[in-house]
Amino acid sequence: MMTVALDEALVRRPVGGPAVMAGQLRFLADMAAQPNICLREVPYAAGRHPGLATSAFTLLHFPPSNRGNE
């Protein structure tokens, strides 16, 4: 299971025009529909999360696991 928390600004601030935003939101909706993905939105009212204090982050990709299918 992968849980993703996105800042509300990411889905509200227009970037690239309406067509680009529509595509990005459609992608998020498609990903959230997957049974192994939990997509959460952190509202503006929650304030700044301490995890946002750093400007660097790492995106990890892992190959599908065959565990449990043996």
Molecular structure report:
The structure is a single chain. This protein is of the alpha+beta class and 70 residues long. The protein contains two helices and two strands, in the order E-H-H-E. It is globular, with a radius of gyration of 15 Å. The model has no long low-confidence stretch (mean pLDDT 83).
Q: Please give the largest β-sheet.
A: 2 strands, parallel
N- to C-terminal distance: 19 Å
Bulk shape: globular
The number of domains: 1
Offer a quick outline of the entry.
The protein has a two-stranded parallel ribbon with strand order 1-2.
Detail the topology: elements first, then pairings.
Elements: E1 2-7, H1 8-12, H2 18-32, E2 37-42
Parallel strand pairs: 1-2
Key terms:
single chain; 29% helix; 70 residues; 2 helices; two-stranded parallel sheet; alpha+beta; globular
